[in-house]
Each structure stands twice: as structure tokens, then as C-alpha cells.
């Protein structure tokens, strides 16, 4: 029976129970919990140092008011990186290839930034709907366009992130299938194709890490005063 290439993106089931919850919960089990001792082991020390450096780089473009988001953003980005990297292993499932999951991350954070901006700086937040120096006849049209652009951002972000991972996984599976098919007939071509597969895998690893920077994309569209 011919197996569809898109079957890898279907949520796996066991006794009729979707296993996506386990795939989402698993990354948190892989990180060691810091102890209450004054001196930790090397693994926890390196983990803490990397998280501190990661947090400093993430919060660097934001003012002091935005630093209260550090725990949420850093936890979410580490979570996404771990899920994406685990999804590159053979016989695994990548939850972030599901549009529903990406939208579940994008919509609440986008909505929080909009609500906080309207509460703290309503004039500045509404001012972004109308660029300065706009001719009077174009004001109604530009307000409608900017409003639609504001509401479509989380959808565009979720679709872009889903498409990036889905396209990468499909290309890896297609090229890997081509390698196995060509190996008995044309070994030289198969070796060259395997080299392309290796390079594509490295690219997919980079994409898996870059996808977690979607949170910074959300913050980039938000005025610093509204954080």
C-alpha cells in the first residue's frame, strides 16, 4: 500500500488517544531541575549559563518595562527549540507542524500585546493605524488596511512557521526516498543526492532553531512603550 508523504504530519494515535499531548510534555522532562544546593553539577551549571545568556540576548532590544515578559518568552522559545529539534529525529512527531498549535502560541501573545498597548498607550497604539502625513482622502482607506494588517499578523505568522517546517520535512523525506531508489541503479548519483540530503538536514536544523524567534517577531511589531 502506498503511504502518503503527508502521513508524517498526522497526529499519532494509540488506542484512539492522540499522543500529541505526550509530544508536547516530553521536552520539559529532558531538562534537569536545579537543586537547592549552593553548588550544582556541571550540567545544571552549563544549563543555567546558557539560559542566562539567551535571556540577555532576547531582552536586549526591549526597555526595562518589557523585561517582565522574560520568563514567559524564554520558556516558550526553549520549549519550541526543543520540540523542533526532537522532531528531526527518525520516527518522531513534530507538533509544531500543526497550524492549530502555532496559532495557539501566536494569537494569545499577539492579543496580549494589543490589549496592553491599548491600555497603557491608547493614543500611540491607535496612531500606528494611520501613518503621519497621510493625505486626507486616503485616511479611511489606510485605517481599514492597517486594521486588517493588524488582525492578520498572527495568522500570517502561524502559517509561515507551519509552512517552513512542513516544507523542510517533506523535502527531507522526498530526497531520502530518492536516495534509496537510486542506490541500486546509480550509486554515484545516490551519493550526490545523499550529500544534498545532509546539507538539507543541516538547513532544517537551523530552521528549527530560527522558528523559535517568532516571539521576537511579535515583539518587533509592538511599540516599546506598550510593553
Automatic annotation (TrEMBL):
<dbReference type="GO" id="GO:0005743">
    <property type="term" value="C:mitochondrial inner membrane"/>
</dbReference>
<keyword id="KW-0496">Mitochondrion</keyword>
<feature type="transmembrane region" description="Helical">
    <location>
        <begin position="138"/>
        <end position="156"/>
    </location>
</feature>
<dbReference type="InterPro" id="IPR035908">
    <property type="entry name" value="F0_ATP_A_sf"/>
</dbReference>
<keyword id="KW-0813">Transport</keyword>
<feature type="transmembrane region" description="Helical">
    <location>
        <begin position="12"/>
        <end position="31"/>
    </location>
</feature>
<dbReference type="InterPro" id="IPR045083">
    <property type="entry name" value="ATP_synth_F0_asu_bact/mt"/>
</dbReference>
<keyword id="KW-0812">Transmembrane</keyword>
<keyword id="KW-1133">Transmembrane helix</keyword>
<keyword id="KW-0999">Mitochondrion inner membrane</keyword>
<comment type="similarity">
    <text>Belongs to the ATPase A chain family.</text>
</comment>
<keyword id="KW-0066">ATP synthesis</keyword>
<dbReference type="Pfam" id="PF00119">
    <property type="entry name" value="ATP-synt_A"/>
</dbReference>
<feature type="transmembrane region" description="Helical">
    <location>
        <begin position="189"/>
        <end position="210"/>
    </location>
</feature>
<feature type="transmembrane region" description="Helical">
    <location>
        <begin position="163"/>
        <end position="183"/>
    </location>
</feature>
<comment type="subunit">
    <text>Component of the ATP synthase complex composed at least of ATP5F1A/subunit alpha, ATP5F1B/subunit beta, ATP5MC1/subunit c (homooctomer), MT-ATP6/subunit a, MT-ATP8/subunit 8, ATP5ME/subunit e, ATP5MF/subunit f, ATP5MG/subunit g, ATP5MK/subunit k, ATP5MJ/subunit j, ATP5F1C/subunit gamma, ATP5F1D/subunit delta, ATP5F1E/subunit epsilon, ATP5PF/subunit F6, ATP5PB/subunit b, ATP5PD/subunit d, ATP5PO/subunit OSCP.</text>
</comment>
<feature type="transmembrane region" description="Helical">
    <location>
        <begin position="101"/>
        <end position="118"/>
    </location>
</feature>
<dbReference type="InterPro" id="IPR023011">
    <property type="entry name" value="ATP_synth_F0_asu_AS"/>
</dbReference>
<protein>
    <recommendedName>
        <fullName>ATP synthase subunit a</fullName>
    </recommendedName>
</protein>
<keyword id="KW-0138">CF(0)</keyword>
<keyword id="KW-0472">Membrane</keyword>
<dbReference type="GO" id="GO:0046933">
    <property type="term" value="F:proton-transporting ATP synthase activity, rotational mechanism"/>
</dbReference>
<dbReference type="InterPro" id="IPR000568">
    <property type="entry name" value="ATP_synth_F0_asu"/>
</dbReference>
<feature type="transmembrane region" description="Helical">
    <location>
        <begin position="69"/>
        <end position="89"/>
    </location>
</feature>
<keyword id="KW-0406">Ion transport</keyword>
<keyword id="KW-0375">Hydrogen ion transport</keyword>
<dbReference type="GO" id="GO:0045259">
    <property type="term" value="C:proton-transporting ATP synthase complex"/>
</dbReference>
Amino acid at each position: 500500500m502506498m503511504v502518503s508523504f503527508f502521513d508524517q504530519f498526522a497526529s499519532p494515535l494509540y488506542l484512539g488517544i492522540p499522543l500529541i499531548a505526550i509530544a508536547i510534555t516530553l521536552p520539559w522532562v529532558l531538562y534537569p531541575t536545579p537543586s537547592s544546593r549552593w553548588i550544582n553539577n556541571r550540567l545544571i551549571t552549563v544549563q543555567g549559563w546558557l539560559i542566562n545568556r539567551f535571556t540577555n540576548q532576547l531582552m536586549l532590544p526591549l526597555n526595562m518595562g518589557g523585561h517582565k515578559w522574560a520568563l514567559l518568552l524564554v520558556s516558550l522559545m526553549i520549549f519550541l527549540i526543543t520540540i523542533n529539534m526532537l522532531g528531526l529525529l527518525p520516527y518522531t512527531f513534530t507538533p509544531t507542524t500543526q497550524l492549530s498549535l502555532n496559532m495557539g502560541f501566536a494569537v494569545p501573545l499577539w492579543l496580549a500585546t494589543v490589549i496592553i498597548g491599548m491600555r497603557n498607550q491608547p493614543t500611540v497604539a491607535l496612531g500606528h493605524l494611520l501613518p503621519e502625513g497621510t493625505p486626507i482622502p486616503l485616511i479611511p482607506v489606510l485605517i481599514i488596511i492597517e486594521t486588517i494588517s493588524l488582525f492578520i499578523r498572527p495568522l500570517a505568522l502561524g502559517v509561515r512557521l507551519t509552512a517552513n517546517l512542513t516544507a523542510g520535512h517533506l523535502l527531507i523525506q522526498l530526497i531520502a526516498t530518492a536516495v534509496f531508489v537510486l542506490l541500486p541503479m546509480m550509486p554515484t548519483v545516490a551519493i550526490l543526492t545523499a550529500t544534498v540530503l545532509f546539507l538539507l538536514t543541516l538547513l532544517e536544523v537551523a530552521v528549527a532553531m530560527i522558528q523559535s524567534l517568532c516571539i521576537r517577531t511579535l515583539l518587533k511589531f509592538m511599540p516599546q512603550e506598550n510593553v
